[in-house]
């Protein structure tokens, strides 16, 4: 570990998150819904407050000092994201409202090029954002949507993936990490296979980004999409990273101010990357907040973050082996962050409700993955998802509360 990095001390980390200091139902809040959204450290809250209280102005177009400073912070944020994910060039970082919009920008571009006979590959574990978008693009263009199956433990069937690739595969869209199962996909190997067939590759990084260590050059993909709010940043901001050679003539997404080169009453030409894909006033405070989140996260060694999250998951999995009546959903060998389960004989919604009454925040339901739940034959699951500030004591609290919940529902 480099000397410049901050030691990974969970108590010190927790102290930086004001929301974690509160009590719910007379008990300390146990926040285990990090796959839905992560909490924000003071550094992020402060960066947003500073922007609004020191230099609120529109970017790129002002002739005054506030606008210059807002533009400086805004564009510095792009540099930070570019270096965080090892982009080749800062112009490859496109600000979006989140993963969903990033995927839609790619779909909008590719749908205009798809034709009958072309194929798009997704997996059985997709979040709706990376399924419905492609399903609709295929319906519009006449291309076929191919679904790569998973094994019963939630791991991707990589042999089926290889078999489904063909010269007709135009795009492969894969999650880095499944939000419902926690499965970490071998995206580098899968990308290599897909590229050998000449396909474009999009990685849905909504869950992957929070665990650190994303290097788009190593992955070899064409696009990587993520949301700020899943990585300690604000809601309403996200990133589409795309290779400049692919994005530079990508069909424009929205039209309006900032994205043009020349405009007449009857025609317009488009600007260069990144502006050509960023129409209108961006979420300036959100972008600055996201960069502050990245500064905050990159104080730590990535391997320490991952080791902590894997230790929480391993501990929960061990406690589950001694807990009668719990069924784990998603037990792939490589998984992170997500502990999905059903309590036998109980509906996940009831489990979530009763845990909430004991100060424990989890998520229940289909996790925006209805087809995956159908594939697993489940109405939904209860999902505890872990982050850097969670503790082994919180995992104990979850299991104590689950015992009580089980008794109440019996
Ligand atoms: C795997 C995955 N993809 C996409 C999304 C959509 O992210 P957002 O709603 O921030 O656009 C999520 C959100 O939970 C997700 O977990």
UniProtKB/TrEMBL annotation:
Q: What class of enzyme is it?
A: transferase
Mind listing the UniProt keywords for this protein, alphabetically?
Pyridoxal phosphate, Transferase
Q: Which cofactor does it need?
A: pyridoxal 5'-phosphate
Q: Identify one Pfam family in the record.
A: Aminotran_5
Provide the reaction this enzyme catalyses: (sulfur carrier)-H + L-cysteine = (sulfur carrier)-SH + L-alanine
In this protein, which residues make up the domain named Aminotransferase class V?
30-398
The coiled-coil segments of this chain are: none
EC number annotated for this UniProt entry: 2.8.1.7
* Gene3D superfamilies hit by this protein: Aspartate Aminotransferase, domain 1, Type I PLP-dependent aspartate aminotransferase-like (Major domain)
**Which top-rank group of organisms is this from?**
Bacteria
One Gene Ontology term of the molecular function aspect = cysteine desulfurase activity
Job description of the protein: Catalyzes the removal of elemental sulfur and selenium atoms from L-cysteine, L-cystine, L-selenocysteine, and L-selenocystine to produce L-alanine.
State the family it belongs to: Belongs to the class-V pyridoxal-phosphate-dependent aminotransferase family. Csd subfamily.
Q: What is the protein named? A: Cysteine desulfurase
Organism expressing this protein natively? Alkalimonas mucilaginosa
